[in-house]
Amino acid sequence: MKINEKNMVAFATSATPVDREGWLNKRGELNRGYQRRWFVLKGNILFYFDRRGDKEPVGMIVLEGCTIELAEDEEQFGFQIVFHGPNNRNYALAAESQESMEQWMKALACASYDYMKLMVAELQRQLDAAEEETTMVMAPAQSPKAPPRQRHNPFNRSELHHRSQSVRSAPGRTENVPRTRITFRELHNMYGRRILADLNEWRHTRKTVEAPLISF
């Protein structure tokens, strides 16, 4: 179809960035044969011209609500732009090589606004995941906390009494063990008898050693 809107014509031929451009064969709507056209992709709009460098496009295709599919039975290196819904026209195109066909199909499939929204959502998800991972890695490790110190009031009489009782009952202390009183005479007799017995045993052993081994 002819494009007469000045704004679209100006956009098609302006110096705005071009996503992809090149020659493609396009099947006509009335004439079912393929015609060679110069295609220019800008954003989600695909313009096509009779010749390269024309000031006005022959037509345009808004790439929304469509899918890009192979059309192997139509033409070699052929593909088509399929619009879903009633009374929608499909566009059959063919490239000059396998590589060119794949590049055009990829560029057209990524041109729609819906695809861009999906890509933005996916990139946002990846960014959130990366930020969360970075936060977890950079978070300082929590050092173990020391147990709270117990402070004692030195003027607390009940606490002093409890501590004194604990000291008295500590093992090894003999303050509460009853002692038996022994007189000096009893100690003298007990140790004197032991010393006297040891002395007699020593004298007997000495006499035995000094005795001659052979008697005449």
Automatic annotation (TrEMBL):
GO biological process: endosome organization; receptor recycling; retrograde transport, endosome to Golgi
A family per Pfam: PH
Region ranges (Disordered): 139-175
Coiled coil: none
Domain PH positions: 17-113
CDD domains recorded: PH_Ses (cd13288)
Alphabetical list of InterPro entries matching this protein: Boi1/Boi2-like (IPR045188), PH-like_dom_sf (IPR011993), PH_domain (IPR001849)
GO CC terms: cytosol; early endosome; recycling endosome; trans-Golgi network
Name of the molecule in the record: Sesquipedalian-1-like
SUPFAM superfamilies: PH domain-like
